[in-house]
Design a protein that fits this description.
By secondary structure, this protein is mainly alpha-helical. The chain contains 24 helices and no strands. The chain is globular.
């Protein structure tokens, strides 16, 4: 991994020794890692509340699978965040930017918007119509994606070296995974007792964790000189540099491999995205109680998720990107296809626990590997925009395709398949869409092994 756009040739210096596991773990005691943990939690909190958990709420209210699938398109906001990332990269946040700095100022604005949007969803509820509720969900998704832009930039710019970047990426994923647990398990248990609106309102208040982390964080100083040297955004040169410059610089740094890298990133998380909107409706339709879902997610799922994050972080630091990415590309399709077993076993708790453990471990492992890889591809001065481009690339196709997930299941059912069988066929198909990503990363790994010395190591 390298923090520079053009690192020295691979032959310029001997490789750095790999860190032992205990040295890696001891570095987690740094204060910035704790801040990263909290910011990861704030980034993960809104994600399922406008996605899979949102679908669970809607299904409880009798909403059709087709409508749930299409409403998942509010998450496309995460996929087009590169459109406003240049503004976040180059302009201070209104009102608070001068006080907190560029990165922290935008963090605070986005976090307050997310909290307010979740509370608005709680107040509106499905009773005011799906259009109103979907509109508030879109506001939350927009604010959340803006928060992601800035948190990702803060993580990359705050890292002192490539190893620390890997550690911060792991801390981010751990916090993010904790938020997913809260919004995927705890909120389900809470909804069974106090209802969905109060649960969503409480989740909005939990954004205070992110606000506190933002206030305690230090504004990254490493990129200040680079950003101040750039022309003002309102000039022709400044506008071109802010909007076009990140894309030009990305392909200048990675050359002919840039398109191949973007394609691999775009396909990597497809299985998870495609099956996502159907997971909670699937539990509902299979008759699995909310308390069972919450318990399994909060025990087996939690342990497996933490293990996956730890394994993904250690693998990325010790063995490099491509071995970790390839393992993740194998695990993800297997985990998604395994849900077909649950469709035939009904509510068997042992099968449910095993499938949930595999899913949480696989997605956590793959998530850390992909985040660390994408982080290494950004250049100083364009951090927010380039990472937004990469993360939008990895999410765009999946978020579009997942909108059809409900229509596919209902279509399979209409063609004569019983509902459990329709779900099973869907999950196997969702797993198979991960095969192209595996092939592309195998190709990139092969190219990486025989790259010419003048090509940057991070280019492959």
């Amino acid at each position: 991994m390298s923090d520079q756009t053009n690192p020295p040739p691979a032959t310029a210096a001997p490789p750095k020794p790999r860190k032992g596991a205990m040295r890696v773990l001891s570095a987690l005691r740094q204060p910035k890692v704790a801040v990263m943990l909290a910011l990861g939690f704030a980034s993960g909190l809104p994600f399922l509340l406008t996605g899979n958990t949102f679908g669970y709420w809607l299904r409880d209210e009798g909403t059709s699978l087709k409508a749930i699938g299409f409403l998942s398109w509010v998450g496309i906001a995460y996929s087009v965040k590169y459109l406003w990332a240049p503004l976040v990269d180059r302009l201070d946040a209104p009102l608070v930017g001068r006080w907190l700095g560029r990165r922290r100022g935008w963090m605070l604005i986005a976090q307050l918007m997310v909290g307010a949007g979740l509370i608005a969803m709680a107040v509106a509820g499905p009773g005011h119509g799906l259009a109103v509720l979907g509109g508030f969900a879109l506001v939350v998704a927009f604010a959340s994606s803006t928060q992601d832009i800035v948190v990702d930039a803060w993580r990359i710019e705050s890292a002192a070296d490539s190893e620390e970047l890997g550690l911060l990426s792991s801390a981010y994923q751990l916090g993010y995974r904790g938020a997913l647990l809260a919004t995927d398990a705890l909120i389900v248990a809470a909804a069974a007792r106090i209802g969905w609106p109060i649960s969503y309102g409480a989740a909005g208040l939990c954004m205070a964790v992110g606000v506190a982390a933002t206030l305690f964080a230090l504004e990254p100083a490493r990129a200040d000189a680079v950003m101040k040297a750039k022309a003002p955004l309102w000039t022709a040169q400044g506008f071109f540099d802010a909007v076009i410059g990140p894309f030009v610089e990305f392909f200048r740094a990675h050359r002919q491999y840039g398109v191949l890298m973007l394609a691999a990133v775009a396909l990597y998380r497809l299985p998870d995205f495609v099956m996502g909107p159907m997971a909670n409706p699937f539990y509902h339709d299979m008759g699995i109680a909310k308390d069972t879902v919450a318990f399994v997610r909060g025990t087996v799922g939690l342990v497996a998720g933490i293990a996956g994050i730890a394994a993904g972080g250690l693998a990325s630091v010790r063995f490099g990107f491509f071995p970790s990415l390839i393992v993740g590309a194998i695990l993800q399709p297997l985990a998604v296809a395994a849900f077909a077993l649950l469709a035939y076993s009904g509510s068997n708790p042992w099968v449910f626990g095993s499938v949930m453990a595999l899913d949480n471990f696989s997605m956590s492992f793959a998530g850390v590997a992909l985040v660390a890889y994408m982080s290494s591809l950004t250049g100083l001065g364009y951090t927010a925009t380039q990472y937004a481009l990469l993360s939008s690339t990895y999410a765009m196709l999946g978020k579009f395709l997942k909108g059809f997930s409900g229509a596919i299941v209902e279509g399979l059912q209409a063609s004569g398949h019983p509902l459990p069988q329709a779900y099973a066929i869907f999950f196997v198909g969702a797993g198979l869409v991960g095969v192209p990503a595996l092939l592309l990363f195998l190709l990139l790994a092969a190219l990486h092994r025989r790259r010419p010395p003048e090509v940057a190591p991070a280019a492959l």
